[in-house]
Amino acid sequence: MTPSEIAFLRKAHLEFKNLKLPSKRPMDDRDLHDFLHGEGLVETSINLRLEAASGFTRAGMLALSQLAGDLRPRSEYGARSVSRQSLAKALAQLAIAIWAERPAGPLTDREIAEFDEKISAWFASQDLVRTHYIPCTVNAWPTEAFSIGPVRFYPFNEIPVEDLGLKREDVWPVGEGAMSSLAEIHIGDLLRIAGMRNAGTIAEVSIPGREKTQSNLTADIAVDVALAIVQLLTPPGMFKRASRATSRAAPVWWARLSTTDGTVSPDTQNDEPGRAFGPGALEIALRQCAPAVESMGSRLQSYVDGSGVRPALDETWCNAAYWYHEAVAEPLDTVAIAKFETTIEVLFRSENSSGSKKRLLQGLEAFFGKKRDDDIGGITADQLAASIVTSRSRVLHGTWPTLHTELPDGKGSVEVNIATAEQLARFLLIAFSEAVDVYGAAGAGDDTVEALLAWRLQQSAPPVVPRSP
After folding, report:
1. pLDDT class for 465, splitting at 50, 70, 90?
2. Closest residue by Cα to residue 392 from 329, 458, 346
3. Contact, 224 vs 325, CB < 8 A?
4. For the whole model, what pTM was predicted?
5. For 282-313, how does the pLDDT look when each residue is reduced to its tens digit (9 = 90+)?
6. Superkingdom of this entry's organism (predicted)?
7. pLDDT, tens digit, for every residue of 32-85?
8. CA nearest 233: which of 246, 221, 222, 242?
9. Span 357-364, average pLDDT
10. Dihedrals φ, ψ of 133, to 5°?
11. Which of 125, 224, 248, 442 is most buried, with most CB under 10 Å away?
12. Residue 187 carries which DSSP code?
């Protein structure tokens, strides 16, 4: 361990307590809470054999959190392998297991070395691949299996139950039989949430080198980005309700009821993704866009396993695609325009409103050959950039009501159009990914947005004309 890591560990040890439980019996949850709270313990373990409580104060957990921040680079995946909070809790439990029966006194050099070995063993235990099966609402029509980078989508009834230690008849018994008890344990809850959320598709993704909580989060994000790619390559609005069953998503089917002067007005609405697209249309669209699917899928693959030639640019693209996925599902235009503009800001690593406009103008020139004063649908590139950035600022800073049915005007009273914002974000994401492919293959420069834009502007490359879904 480094001197600073040792200092954090010693500080945490000073805030570690071994306490005998009160003699009062019986002791209920409130008694135990009051006892631990009174002693200042916030992370504890109860040893019934010893009738003792061991744990750390808030100051001790802060020291372990600081230690966790220093330790995360030990993993191949760095900070992505485990959150600081989760690692601090893991360190606390390691320490409690070792120190619960230890006599009082400062830590010895040998004990510090042994604790360091425990930490290394913990990181080694996370060096595995977890495969996640996530129910999703993707398409109203039966859909062939397809892959987006590391994420494979297929019908729920094709889930590989054999890999879960089950037989198909355990999950889907013939006749009126019931699911087996083992199937109920392994897959019962997944079936129920899929049914509740109309999620007939499984997204399968394997996540390497993450602690369990971080692996779950990474898998969810990977699926969201994969769904964003589907949304990028299909007609606007057609798959806006495509989502994980476990995400913050609106239902795909609505029922409303209202009355006016005694007249009852029931109303229903079906927003299943792809319903108007028709059966088989999604498969055709993805085949026609195969190069774009491969390009953007490689960005996602790199985010998951760090395999990309330009990993920082790959992660930047995935961050922006996640915002696009959020934006297309947003029912309020005022919030949606803020999310579309945030998509662009994240893509270009803009630091503020003026930087966002500058980077957007650079992007328009680099990818589409449109300079500041060039016409884009009746307005200049400068007016377009200013209007989108300004409208976002007005919504997020409260100068325009969020709960409003109309968008604010942009700078110079230029009317903002949500369809234009969506199309611009879409085209930039597609063009950016294609540019990263060429840039990475050429070994042209640094792994930064600034270097990519500068390289693109120097190439005298023809404008990118993304295929319209």
Report:
1. low
2. 346
3. yes
4. 0.90
5. 999 999 999 999 999 999 999 999 888 899 99
6. Bacteria
7. 888 888 889 999 998 878 788 899 999 999 999 999 999 998 888 888 899 999
8. 242
9. 86
10. -120, 110
11. 224
12. I
Q: How far apart are CA 432 and CA 428, in angstroms?
A: 6
- The length of the chain is 469
Q: Tokens standing for 94?
A: 């390691």
Token pair of 325 as six digits: 């996925």
Query: How far, CA to CA in Å, does 376 sit from each of 207, 284, 431?
Result: 42, 31, 17
Nearest to 140 by CA among 279, 269, 235: 279
C-alpha span between 65 and 43 (Å, rounded): 12
Ordered by start, the domain boundaries in the chain are 3-126, 129-253+275-285, 309-460
Reply yes or no on whether the pLDDT at 157 is more than 60.
yes
Instruction: For residue 221, give the DSSP letter.
Output: H
Which tokens belong to 320?
A: 């922006």
Residues in contact with 350: Cβ distance below 8 Å, sequence separation at least 6, in sequence order: 344, 356, 358, 359, 360
d(CA 123, CA 69): 14
List the alpha helices (DSSP H) in 151-211. 168-171, 181-183, 189-196
Looking only at the bridges linking them, the beta strands covering 52-57 and 129-137 are unpaired
Q: What is the pLDDT of residue 407?
A: 74
